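Input:
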Amino acid sequence: MTVSPSVAENSPTPSTAAGLRAGAAGGTRSATDAHPDVELIGVTKRFGDVVAVDRMNLSIPASSFTSLLGPSGCGKTTTLRMIAGFEQPTEGEILLAGRPIAGVPPYQRNVNTVFQHYALFPHMDVAQNVGYGLRQRKVAKAEEQRRVGEALELVRLGGYAKRRTWEMSGGQQQRVALARALVNHPTVLLLDEPLGALDLKLRKEMQLELKALQQEVGITFVYVTHDQEEALTMSDVIVVMRDGLVQQMGGPSDLYEQPRNRFVADFIGSSNFIAGTIASSDGDDRVTISSERGLTLHGRITDRSASPAIGDTVTVVVRPERLEVAAGDAATATGWTAVAGRINQGTYLGDQTEYRVHTDQAGELIVRLQNTMGANIGQSLGPGDPVVVRWREEANLVLVA
Amino acid sequence: MTATAPADEGRLASPRPARAGHSRAGWLAALLVLPAAAWYLVLLVIPLGIIFVFSFGTRAPTGGYIAGFSFDNYAAALENSEPFVTSLTLSISSTLLCLLVGLPLAYFIATRAGKRKALFMVLLVIPFWTSFLIRTYAWLLILGPEGITGFLGDAFGAPRFRILGTEFGVLIGLVYGYLPLMVFPLYVTLERMDRTLVEASKDLGAGRWATFRQVTLPIALPGLITGSILVFIPMMGEYVIPEILGYGQVYTIGSALVLRFLEARNWPAGAAYAAVLILIMLVTITLYLWFTNRGRQTRDVSVL
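Output:
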C-alpha cells in the first residue's frame, strides 16, 4: 500500500495559516519540495544557565531518514521537541516545509511523534489509539476506519484493532505508536529513541522494519538515538551531536570513513588514535606525520576545510579492522605502515577475533580480524607473542581538531 | 543417620513443607482478616440486622421497641419524605461543587505545583488538625451577621439577607468539610498519569480542552468516582453541619433520625428511615457507577 500525503491533508487549517508566513509555498506538496522538510537556522535553546542546543544550523532533506546521534545530554531530544513544538527555541528559527513555525502549537504542526515509551492512551483500544489524530481533524467515521485499517496493515497489526494496548508486547505497542503517527500523513515523523525499551533481537528487527517502512511511505523520519550502530543501520543522514553542537553531518559511510574530529571517530565505530605532528604536506590533503614516539605515517586530512601548518599537532585514526597482525618483524613495504609489538590480549568474538597489541611506537593498538578461515591464526597468537601490526596508508585518517 | 538418609528425606519431604506452608499461610491470612471481620460483624452486620428487624416493629408506650410486623413505619417515612429530598439535593449539589472546586485544584497540584506539591498537600490537610466542630463554628462567624452576610447585606441594602439557616449555608459547610476527600483521590490519579500522554494528544492534533476531555478526564475517572463516593456517602447522613449552619431549619435525614430515635424515642420509625436511607444510597451509587463505567475500557486503577 502507499501512503501518499494528499494536498488537502497537508494544507494547514485556516487558523494555522494565519500563524504562518503569508504566501509561502501555497500549501501544496509540490511547491514545498524545493525546501528541505525541516530547517534549523541558528537555533539555541537554554534552560536557565544550561545551553541544551547551541546555535544549531541543520537542514533535513525531504523524504530522508535522518538520525540525531549523540550521548545523553547532547541536545538531540531537545532538538526533536523543538521541531514537535513542545519546546520553543530561545533564539533562532525553525522552518517546516519552508515555513517558519515559531508560535505554532504542537497540535497545529503537521508533524507527529513516536514517543520513547510509546505514550499510548490506556483507556482506548488499538483502533481508537490509531484513529485519535483523525478524530481530532473530524475525519468521517468510515474514512477513519479505513485509514486506521490501512495503517495497522502497514505495521503488520492487521487483526489487532480491538486489542487493549497494555495487553500487547513492547514491539507491538511500538507498532501501534508508529501507526498512530503515520495515519496522519505528517510532513515529518519524529522518533524519540523508540526502540530503547526493546530487547536486542527485537530491536534489530525493528530497525530494518522501520527503514523499510520509511522507504515505503516516503515520509521524512527524524530519529533520535544514542546508539551509533542503530544510526548506521537505518539512516540516510546522521547528525552527530555533542554538548548542543553539531559535530558532523553526513551519510553513514562519510562519518565512518571521514570523521572530522576525534569525538566523531570515537563515537562512531571504534578507533585507534595515534598522536603526532605534521612533518610535511603536499599542499593538498596528503600529509606526513611523525608520531610522538617516532613513527612516520602518511595519511589524508579528513576535514578539507582545515588547513593545518607544518608542526601542528594532529591525531591519526586507524579503524581496527583495517589493521593486520602477523608474527614476524617490522619490514616496511611502500604504501604500508608497520609497527612491531607484543600481543597483550586476544579475544575470540565468534565472527572475529580482537587483539590488543602493545607497541612501542603507537601505544596499544586494537586489531580486529575476521575469522574467515575458521580457527585461523588466532589460535596461534597468544599473550606475549612478538608480532607486527601493519596497515595500508589509505587507512590513516588525519584529524586536525 | 546414614549418608543417604538426608537426600531421601529431602526428596520425600519437599512437597510436604510446601503444603504445610500453604495452610500456615491460610491461617495467617485468616488471622489478619479476623479483627476486621469481627469489627464488621459486631458493628455493621448485626446493627444493620437489628435496624431491619426494628423497622417492622411498633413503638412501645414508653418509647423503644415492641416486636411486630407491619409496613406502617415505611409508609410514614415515605409520606414524610421531605428530609430525603433535602439531603439528596444537598449531597448531590455539594458533591458537584466539590468536584468543580476539587478537580482544578487537584490538577493544579498534580501538574503545575512543581516543588511546592508537598506544601499544597500539607495545606490541604492542616484543617484536619483542628476539631471539626471548631471549624464548623468558625463558619458561623464568617457567614454570620458580623461576617460576610452583614457586609453583603449592608453593601446591597438588604438587611434581611442571610446565609446561615439556609440550605446554601449548609452547602458551603458541606463543601468545605468534605473537599479534601475529593481532592486526594483525584490528586493521586492525576499525579500517577503519564504526562507524555498529554503531549501525545497535542502532537496528534488535539488542543488543550480536547486533550483534557479525551485524555486527562477519562484517565482521572477512577479518582473522580472514588472522590465523589467518599464525599457523597457521609454527606447523606451528615447531621452536625446542617444543625449548626442550618440553625435547625434545614431538615435533613440526620435531623430526622435524631428526632425519631432520641427525641420521640420511636425506634421502629427511626429504623425505617435508616433503612430507606441505605436503600437510597445503594440505588444512587449503583446508578452512578453504572453511568460512569459505561463503555470504559481502562484497567481498573480505582483508588478506593
